[in-house]
Amino acid sequence: MTVEAKQTIKLKVEPMTPEAYAPFGSIVDHGKFQLHCNEGQYTARLMDLEPAADRVSRVNRHFDHHQLFVPLTGDPMLLIVAPSHVAAEGFDASTVRAFRNDGTKAFTFNVGVWHIAPRALDGTKAQVINVQGSRYLQHTEYADFPTVEIEL
To answer: Residue 5: is its pLDDT beyond 60?
Structure first.
């Protein structure tokens, strides 16, 4: 990752390994994962992923639940995340990271982790099941920041 004089951050996409992704969530294997939701209940919906863009300037987070994504089509996807300890005000764009999921790994976003919805890569029509708290709109915070360019 490099910072240019105009304060644009260039970000390389990393492979999604359990170790690299651990600060942001879990890769859910064939085993079990315990989801946490403060109030309400979990809902599940089918999502067609938007194509990945080469820039991002806004993320969001939920304080009340883990969020789970289950790939259905085996298509690769891009995950954009940042640590939960980063404040929304004056958001530090240098903390943003990008991961490539090969489309075979279900994964979570931990409570409070900054993220955007996964994005489809390589021109695919990736689909996922999105499992999240039913009151996510009431428990969502947004952060805007200088543009981060992603080297897809």
So the answer is: no
| Residue whose C-alpha is closest to residue 121's, from 102, 106, 140 | 102
Check which CATH number belongs to the domain holding 50 and give it. 2.60.120.480
What are the tens digits of pLDDT across the range 72-131?
999 999 999 999 999 999 999 999 999 999 999 999 999 999 999 999 999 999 999 999
Give the structural domain span for 38: 2-151
Distance CA 128, CA 131 (A): 9
For the question of whether the overall pTM of this predicted structure is more than 0.90, the answer is no
Domains contained in the chain, number = 1
pLDDT (0 to 100) of residue 4: 40
- Let me know: does 14 contact 98? Beta carbons within 8 Å: yes
DSSP 70: E
